[in-house]
């Protein structure tokens, strides 16, 4: 029996010490996933020192969403692809262990999820060493966070970009239903 599932909107959160690597990574992601629909401004990522040893400081972050909707069926593959891309981008930086961090996520009408390779009590195992977590929930007309939500996803600016992306996503779903 096949159960129909809505496609999802791919959103990536990227950060790097080097703006040229951030931009080169986005270009590579566009080659893989197609045209972007929304992009946040680049901002300084100061929410944690966790990445300082491998990535340096200061770190700059940007969120991007992609126009083409995807099937969620094999979504763990996206995280595997971004891990490969992170390794490829290491060739552009001779002095950083990890020149870029790419966090892919999926946006649906009622939630935004992120992928991880790290298990934790609030994450669900998908496949091939990849986990998923609900980062934000959409209800009462807004994005709502919980105790495990990363600090920068609690920011109004992040939620505003995800709201714009959600609105586009809902429009794109309507167009798919009528075609």
Features:
nine-stranded antiparallel β-sheet, 179 residues, Alpha-Beta Plaits, 9 strands, alpha+beta, 31% helix, 4 helices
Brief sketch in words of this structure:
Helix 1 (19-33) crosses helix 3 (76-89). This protein has four helices and nine strands. It is an alpha+beta fold.
Would you kindly provide a written description of the structure presented here, covering whatever features stand out?
This protein has 179 residues and is an alpha+beta fold. The chain has a single domain (8-178), classed as Alpha-Beta Plaits (2-Layer Sandwich), CATH 3.30.70. It is 31% helix and 33% strand. It has four helices and nine strands. It has helices at residues 19-33, 52-55, 76-89, 156-178; strands at residues 8-16, 36-39, 43-45, 59-70, 100-107, 111-116, 124-127, 130-139, 142-144. Strands 1, 2, 3, 4, 5, 6, 7, 8 and 9 form a nine-stranded antiparallel β-sheet that branches. The longest helix is centred in the C-terminal third of the chain and has 23 residues, at 156-178. It is globular. The two termini are 24 Å apart. The model has no long low-confidence stretch (mean pLDDT 94).
């Amino acid at each position: 029996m096949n159960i129909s599932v809505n496609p999802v909107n791919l959103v990536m959160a990227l950060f790097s010490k080097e703006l040229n690597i951030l931009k080169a990574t986005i270009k590579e992601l566009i080659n893989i996933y197609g045209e972007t629909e929304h992009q946040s401004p680049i901002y300084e990522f100061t929410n944690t020192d966790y990445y300082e040893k491998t990535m340096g400081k200061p770190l700059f972050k940007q969120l991007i969403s992609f126009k083409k909707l995807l099937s969620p069926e094999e979504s763990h593959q996206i995280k595997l692809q971004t891990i490969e891309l992170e390794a490829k981008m290491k060739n552009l930086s001779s002095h950083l262990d990890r020149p870029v961090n790419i966090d892919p996520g999926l946006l649906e009408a009622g939630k935004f999820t992120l992928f991880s390779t790290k298990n934790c009590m609030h994450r669900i195992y998908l496949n091939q060493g990849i986990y998923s977590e609900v980062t934000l929930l959409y209800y009462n007309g807004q994005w709502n966070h919980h105790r495990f939500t990363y600090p920068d996803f609690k920011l109004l600016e992040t939620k505003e970009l995800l709201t714009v992306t959600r609105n586009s996503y809902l429009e794109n779903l309507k167009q798919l239903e009528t075609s």
